[in-house]
């Protein structure tokens, strides 16, 4: 694979790609012969950057990813303030639809498999995808039970379902860091050409959740819409991130840091700091 330019930020190497360039790269992989292991894409936001500092397994998953794309607007803003500008935000919830837009360029339909979301949600997403994007074929979907990642029989079942479907692209909407850790762990066994770790995107495609208005997205304030929509689930997380992320940025301003330098600053520390 041709080497793609990256920007070092907060210990991560983030690819300097636009949304169109990233979708084009994934489409190229989908059109190529299947490799020995499934390529996968991760999309860090501020919360991921904070988790990255304290989670060895997540760091390994990011190092082995084929694409690392900046989902969070603050990540992009930080890159520009530090003189290492990323061209734009590339959210997972934008990447999948843009990939589907480009699917008509592929010789034959783009086949996808949906892994994640609540029971019934992925099925609605599949219907919406095929109605809106005729060049995309949904080869299957599955909503794994809670704690499935600790159950080898369930993992084997999921891998078998994907193998039966033989999709070009696996959309993984399990939430971070579960989705990244699962894909990295099983990449050699996933019979898909590439996997996108895309959080709530399946919910958005199903119409089960609504994204923020476009103007909020463009202003870098999509997080505010999500906080207003799910305050009980997100308030503590966003509060923790709001305390830790400026420290990560300050460390970068002072000359950068090794990937593990904030490993000792944990969520428990953040809770105590509040």
From TrEMBL:
Q: Would you say which domain of life the source belongs to?
A: Bacteria
Give the EC number(s) under which this enzyme is classified. 2.4.1.187
What is an example of a GO molecular function annotated in this UniProt entry? Answer: N-acetylglucosaminyldiphosphoundecaprenol N-acetyl-beta-D-mannosaminyltransferase activity
CDD domains named among the record's database cross-references: Glyco_transf_WecG_TagA
Q: Name one Pfam family in it.
A: Glyco_tran_WecG
Can the keyword Electron transport be found in this entry's annotation? no
Q: Which PANTHER family does the annotation name?
A: PTHR34136, UDP-N-ACETYL-D-MANNOSAMINURONIC ACID TRANSFERASE
Query: What is the name of the protein in this document?
Result: N-acetylmannosaminyltransferase
Annotated source species: Pirellulimonas nuda
The encoding gene: tagA_1
């Amino acid at each position: 694979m041709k080497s793609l330019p990256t920007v070092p930020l907060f210990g991560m190497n983030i690819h300097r790609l636009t949304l169109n360039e990233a979708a084009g790269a994934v489409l190229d992989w989908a059109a190529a012969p299947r490799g020995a292991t499934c390529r996968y894409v991760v999309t860090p936001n501020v919360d991921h950057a904070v988790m990255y500092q304290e989670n060895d397994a997540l760091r390994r998953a990011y190092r082995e990813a084929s694409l690392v794309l900046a989902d969070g607007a603050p990540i992009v803003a930080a890159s520009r303030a530090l003189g290492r500008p990323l061209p734009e935000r590339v959210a997972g919830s934008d990447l999948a639809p843009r990939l589907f837009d480009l699917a008509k360029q592929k010789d034959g339909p783009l086949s996808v498999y949906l892994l994640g979301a609540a029971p019934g949600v992925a099925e609605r997403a599949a219907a919406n995808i095929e109605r809106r994007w005729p060049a995309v074929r949904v080869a299957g979907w599955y909503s794994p039970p809670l704690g499935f990642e600790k159950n080898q029989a369930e993992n084997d079942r999921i891998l078998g379902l994907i193998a039966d479907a033989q999709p070009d692209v696996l959309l993984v909407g399990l939430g971070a860091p579960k989705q990244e850790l699962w894909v990295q762990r099983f990449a050699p066994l996933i019979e898909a050409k590439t996997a996108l770790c895309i959080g709530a995107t399946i919910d958005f495609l199903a119409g089960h959740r609504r994204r923020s208005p476009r103007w909020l997205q463009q202003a870098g304030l999509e997080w505010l819409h999500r906080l207003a929509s799910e305050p009980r689930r997100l308030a503590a997380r966003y509060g923790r991130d709001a305390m830790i992320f400026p420290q990560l940025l300050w460390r970068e301003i002072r000359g950068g840091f090794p990937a593990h330098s904030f490993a000792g600053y944990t969520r428990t520390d953040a809770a105590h700091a509040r």
